[in-house]
Structure formats: structure tokens, C-alpha cells
Design brief:
The protein is an all-alpha fold. The protein is about 75% helix and about 0% strand. It is built from five helices and two strands. It has helices spanning about 10-15, 25-45, 55-85, 95-130, 140-175; strands spanning about 135, 140. The chain has a two-stranded antiparallel sheet. α1 crosses α4, α2 packs antiparallel against α5 and α4 (about 95-130) runs antiparallel to α5 (about 140-175).
Length: about 180
């Protein structure tokens, strides 16, 4: 894949934010962010759940707006990173500053991943309109493939938003100290 569209680093660095201080993945976090949305989407697949046209239309509008807002948030997080002073171990409070750098970096990759997730959802909701009523060997594209993927990415996006909000509020609360 050409380096211009290679998103592997964004995905890998987002997954790195699920590691603890010893650099081990936390199974509870992975289950929350990927297991629960996976179970919900597999359940939807099993029951051939299909979104109505009104829901898809609303999702397209929401995802288009959300993608733009997330791109703006990426720029804001990047500017925050650039404004954060460099860590100097000779200065008092350097450990807190180092932690702030780490959180800002993690928030950046969480937002970048959420932007990708929102864009993928936008593509899936548009595909939903084209795949209406199409089945391949008894598998309905909308009810068994596309809509369960929308559910997976949608719940994952909601959880990512909560994590981003929590981390940004932690940065904000520590600003006043």
C-alpha cells in the first residue's frame, strides 16, 4: 500500500492506548471497545437486522458532520501538542509534563482513529443505499453484512468518544493545578 494512504500507524497507535503502564493490553478495555460492539453486530447479523431508510439518512448526515468536526479536533489536539513545553528532567514537575505529553499523544491517535471510524461508517451508510434488497447466496448484504458493520463501528465510535472526552477533561482539570 502506498504510504500516502497507509493508516496502519494510526490504528496501531490507537490500540497502543489500551496498554497499561507495563505495556500490556488490558483485556477488559479490549472487550469493552471491540468485544461488546462485536457481540451486538453478530446478534444483528444473526437476526438479519436492517436499518430503515430514515435511520440511514440521519446517519449519513450525522457522520458527514462528525467527520468534519473530528478533523477540526485533530488540528486542535495537534496545536495543543505543539504548545506544550518540552520535558526537561532538571525542571520541577517534569513527570507531570511527561504524562501530559503522553495523554495528548494518545488523544491525538484516539481522535484520528475516531475520524477513520466515522468515515468508514459514512461509506457503509452510503453502501447501504446501493445494496438495498441485494443478496448473495442467501446472505442479504444490508441485513447480514453492512448494517451489522454499521452497528459495530457505531458502538465503537460512541465508546471512543467517551474515552476522548474523559481524557480531554483530565487534561483540562490538570491545567488549573
Amino acid at each position: 500500500m502506498t504510504s500516502k494512504v497507509n493508516i496502519n500507524q494510526v490504528i496501531r497507535r490507537h490500540f497502543d492506548t489500551f496498554k497499561d503502564k507495563e505495556m500490556h493490553y488490558k483485556p477488559v478495555d479490549l472487550f469493552l471497545f471491540f468485544g461488546i460492539p462485536g457481540i451486538l453486530s453478530l446478534t444483528a447479523c444473526f437476526y438479519s437486522y436492517e436499518f430503515t431508510q430514515a435511520v440511514i439518512s440521519n446517519l449519513i448526515n450525522i457522520e458527514a458532520l462528525l467527520s468534519g468536526l473530528l478533523l477540526n479536533l485533530l488540528v486542535l489536539v495537534y496545536s495543543l501538542k505543539e504548545r506544550t513545553p518540552k520535558v526537561n528532567v532538571e525542571v520541577e514537575g517534569w513527570k507531570e509534563l511527561q504524562l501530559k505529553h503522553q495523554v495528548v499523544n494518545e488523544v491525538f491517535f484516539n481522535v484520528a482513529f475516531s475520524t477513520l471510524t466515522g468515515f468508514i461508517m459514512l461509506i457503509l451508510t452510503v453502501l447501504h443505499n446501493f445494496a438495498d434488497g441485494i443478496s448473495i447466496k442467501g446472505v442479504y448484504l444490508n441485513g447480514n453484512v453492512i448494517d451489522p458493520l454499521i452497528i459495530f463501528f457505531g458502538f465503537n465510535l460512541i465508546l471512543n468518544f467517551m474515552m476522548i472526552i474523559k481524557r480531554i477533561s483530565a487534561l483540562f482539570c490538570n491545567e488549573g493545578d
